[in-house]
Each structure stands twice: as C-alpha cells, then as structure tokens.
C-alpha cells in the first residue's frame, strides 16, 4: 500500500510538472508573438519580402479544404493590396497522391495570381519545418505569415526562431469541424516547437538554396 501511494504521488507530481511546462511554454509563445499579429491593412505597410502561406489539408479530389481555402484567400487579399511581390507556399508534398502544393498553386493561379510570383516549398511537413526552410532554403528575411488565428502564435514563433522578421495575418474562419481537438493539440504543439527550437532540430529535408529573385518555375516540383 505504501508503494502504491508513492506511485500515485509520483504520477501526480509528473502531471503537475507537465502541466506547468505546457502552460509556461504557451504563455511564452503568446507573449513573444502577440505584437506581431496585425491586420491586413497594417501588414501591407511592412515592406515584406514575401507572403508565406502555410499548407493545410486537401480534399480527396485534390482541392483545398475550407481551412486552406481561407488561408489562400487571405494571401490573395494581401498580394492584391501590395503587401509583397512574391508568395511562398509551403506544405506537404511527401507522397505522390497527396499534394498540398499543387492545390495551393492551382487555386492562386485560378484567382489571378501569376505563376511567376508563386514559389513553392514541397517539404513543409510541419509549421517548424516550413519556418526553418523559409530561412535556410529561400533566405527569407521579412515575411507575412498567413494561417488561422489559433495557429499564428506558433507559426510566428518558429519564424522568429530562424531570425525572420515576421508579421502574422489571421485567415478568416477559426472554427472548423474538430476545432476543439485542434485547439488542444496546438497547446502541445507549441511546447513541442519550443523544445525543437531549443534543441536545434533539423527539418526532414534541406538542400540547395533557392533564390526568390530567380524563376519561380524552378520550384514547380
């Protein structure tokens, strides 16, 4: 019985420590990024190098999900407002039959964006990797990041960790099917990304640098 009580106390202690770590890292990320979340009208005055659009799920037919569509619409609005002259789409194209990049590119072109200004990162398998590769591969220095409001703090933190001067614009819509579970996962994901930054984790893939001044067709994949 004494051993059981000791085990229970240990478990409770570990749970409390974990809760403190998660809460602390979330507060840290929020505080570090809160001033960088701006409106579209403010974002267009930041002289950004690029609009970085983070990938999200696509439908079985290959078209963007509602969440991804809202991100693309926000990026389109920013581009049309003159917030930046180029767009960097970053998402998961790790499988032949799953291609966020193709869905994003086709949507933007369909809505009037020239393919000559759409650069693509096919190995943006996570928020952390998209931010890391934006700086390491594409030499991004000043960016406007587009994603949903619940996701913006982590996206901005990851970019800041790579030395990118960054602003975030929340895509319209912040409540989708499964959003409660998504919000809960995001708490843990912020803690995970803080740990990855502190331990200097490398992305799945790196590779040669790609200039945003070069032809965008080099990133068609």
Automatic annotation (TrEMBL):
UniProt entry tagged with the keyword Membrane: yes
Give any Gene Ontology cellular component: plasma membrane
Gene3D superfamilies under this entry? HUPs (3.40.50.620)
**Pfam families associated with the record:** DUF218
Alphabetized, the UniProt keywords read: Membrane, Transmembrane, Transmembrane helix
Q: Where is the DUF218 domain?
A: 49-188
The answer to whether keyword Transmembrane helix applies is yes
Looking at the UniProt entry, the stretches that span the membrane are: 7-30
Q: InterPro entries under this entry?
A: Cell_Envelope_Assoc (IPR051599), DUF218 (IPR003848), Rossmann-like_a/b/a_fold (IPR014729)
The protein's name is YdcF family protein
């Amino acid at each position: 019985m004494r051993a059981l009580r000791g085990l229970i106390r240990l478990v409770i202690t570990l749970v409390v420590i974990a809760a403190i770590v998660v809460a602390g890292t979330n507060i840290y990320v929020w505080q570090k990024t809160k001033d960088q979340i701006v409106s579209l009208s403010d974002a267009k005055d930041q002289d950004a190098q690029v609009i970085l659009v983070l990938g999200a799920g696509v439908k079985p037919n290959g078209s963007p999900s509602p969440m991804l569509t809202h991100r693309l619409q926000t990026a389109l609005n920013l581009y049309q407002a003159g917030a930046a002259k180029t767009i960097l789409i970053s998402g998961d194209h790790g499988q032949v039959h799953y291609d966020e990049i193709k869905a994003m590119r086709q949507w933007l072109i369909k809505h009037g964006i020239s393919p000559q200004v759409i650069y693509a990162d096919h190995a943006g398998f996570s928020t952390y990797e998209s931010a890391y590769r934006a700086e390491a591969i594409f030499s991004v220095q000043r960016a406007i990041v587009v994603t949903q409001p619940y996701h913006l703090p982590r996206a901005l933190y990851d970019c800041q960790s790579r030395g990118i001067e960054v602003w975030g614009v929340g895509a319209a819509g912040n409540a989708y099917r499964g959003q409660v579970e998504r919000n809960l996962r995001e708490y843990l994901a912020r803690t995970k990304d803080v740990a990855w930054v502190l331990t200097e984790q490398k992305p799945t893939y790196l590779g040669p640098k790609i200039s945003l001044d070069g032809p965008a067709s080099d990133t068609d994949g």
